[in-house]
Amino acid sequence: MRHSSAAIIGQHNIFAQFGVTAPIAQALRSLEAATDSYASTLQGIAPSQANDIANSKAQLDIALSNAISTYEQICIPSPLYPTLQPICVGL
C-alpha cells in the first residue's frame, strides 16, 4: 500500500495548483470509512484470519491518514507553476 499512497500524495501539487484538493480529501475520508466497514465485516466472516485482516487494515489506515492529511492542507496556487510549486500548510 505504500506505493499507492505515495502515488496519491505525489500528485498533490498539481491538484493543489488547481484548487481541487478538498473533494479528493473528502473522497479519501469516504474510502477510509468504507474500508473500516469492510474490514469489520471480513473479520466477522473469517475469524481465523482476523489478525491478518487487522494488520492489513492498520497499514491501510496509516496510508489513508497520510494521504488525507496531505490533501487537507491549505494551498496557495503558484503563478509560476510548474517551475514554482503551490505553497501548502497543514491544519
Terminal Cα span = 25 Å
Percent in strands: 5-15%
Average pLDDT reading: 92
Domain module count: 1
Can you walk through the features of this model?
68% of the residues lie in helices and 7% in strands. The two termini are 25 Å apart. It is elongated and about 55 Å long. The model has no long low-confidence stretch (mean pLDDT 92). The longest helix has 25 residues, at 21-45. The protein has four helices and two strands. It has helices at residues 2-10, 12-17, 21-45, 50-71; strands spanning 74-76, 87-89. 10% of the residues are buried. It has one domain. Strands 1-2 form a two-stranded antiparallel ribbon. By secondary structure, the chain is mostly helical.
Secondary structure layout:
Elements: H1 2-10, H2 12-17, H3 21-45, H4 50-71, E1 74-76, E2 87-89
Antiparallel strand pairs: 1-2
Explain briefly what this protein structure is.
The chain has 91 residues and is mainly α.
Keywords for this entry:
91 residues; mainly alpha; two-stranded antiparallel ribbon; 4 helices; 68% helix; 7% strand
